[in-house]
Amino acid sequence: MIKLSSENEKLKFKAEVFKAMGHPLRLGIIEFLRDEEKCVCEIVDFMGTGMSNISKHLSVLKKAGILEDRRDGLKMMYRLIMPCAIEFSSCVEQIVLKRLDKHRSIMVA
Amino acid sequence: MIKLSSENEKLKFKAEVFKAMGHPLRLGIIEFLRDEEKCVCEIVDFMGTGMSNISKHLSVLKKAGILEDRRDGLKMMYRLIMPCAIEFSSCVEQIVLKRLDKHRSIMVA
DNA sequence: TTATTGTTTTACTAAATAACGAAATAGTGA
DNA sequence: TCACTATTTCGTTATTTAGTAAAACAATAA
């Protein structure tokens, strides 16, 4: 069966969102922004890596449509604009924890 | 601020789930399996690429804990075991469509 | 204007990972 | 054994990632 090309286009766009979230540092940023916007400097302090590196990851998330930024004086503030990302992340977390438990009990057995 | 290492471990596991979904072909497989299990041959027919390629992508999804398989005679049947993946995928789709609309209206304006 | 702060971008290196097709290798059942 | 379905391995090519350093940029203060 041949898939419609518009379907493929949609899949590519959607996959880009998942790909953007598929990196520990970027996922950490998303969770850090869960409740309120933060400046780049706060994100750098929290994540513990260089500003230039964080800035690159932020631009990936922005391009994917997951974050938006806004200037506040000298600072750039970033905020989450895809609330379902947090929901899905918690769902994945539950599954991951369950798997880790299972793994642990196999190790013990 | 320094992050706990167990937090980092969890982030890595979760990121793996997102990474697994961050590929058009794999996302297509997930949506194809939305309602019922399918054999590899059906997935190959639907996605339109080689079996060896599909098989590898299936193993990525299985390893991430998104799919499970079961043998039925000669065939291997795959099914989705992470229902929230579908929910999140629809949420992302809505956002992607909105962005495409906006893009289109900018192009027209 | 110049200096300072906060951020982004570009450029480069090096290592790791991912993608795909083709061929070899399982498993299962007749 | 043969046919069928699926997985694995191999080799090539491409992409991703981390990291650092330097330059560019934007807004504010002196």
Structure write-up:
The structure is a homodimer of 109-residue chains. Helix content of chain A is 67%, strand content 13%. The first copy, chain A, has 109 residues and is an alpha+beta fold. In chain A, strand 2 and strand 3 (75-80) form a beta hairpin. Chain A starts with a helix and ends with a helix. Chain A binds chain B through residues 1-3, 8, 10-24, 26-28, 31, 45-48, 65, 82, 84-85, 87-89, 91-93, 95-97, 99-100, and chain B through 1-3, 8, 10-24, 26-28, 45-48, 65, 82, 84-85, 87-89, 91-93, 95-97, 99-100.
Task: Give the biggest beta sheet of chain A.
Answer: 3 strands, antiparallel
Sketch the topology of chain A as an H/E string, one letter per element: HHEHHEEH
CATH superfamily of chain A: Winged helix-like DNA-binding domain superfamily/Winged helix DNA-binding domain
Low-pLDDT sequence parts of chain A: none
Number of helices of chain A: 5
- Give the CATH architecture of chain A: Orthogonal Bundle
What is the CATH domain class of chain A? Mainly Alpha
Oligomer class: homodimer
Task: Give the strand line-up of the largest sheet of chain A.
Answer: 1-3-2
- Largest binding interface between chains: A-B, 42 and 41 residues
Number of domains of chain A: 1
- Label the structural class of chain A: alpha+beta
Topology, pairings included?
2 copies of one chain form a homodimer.
Chain A: H1 5-21, H2 24-32, E1 38-39, H3 40-47, H4 51-63, E2 67-72, E3 75-80, H5 83-108
Antiparallel strand pairs in A: 1-3, 2-3
Chain B binds a DNA duplex (30 and 30 nucleotides) through residues 23, 39-41, 49-60, 71, 73-76.
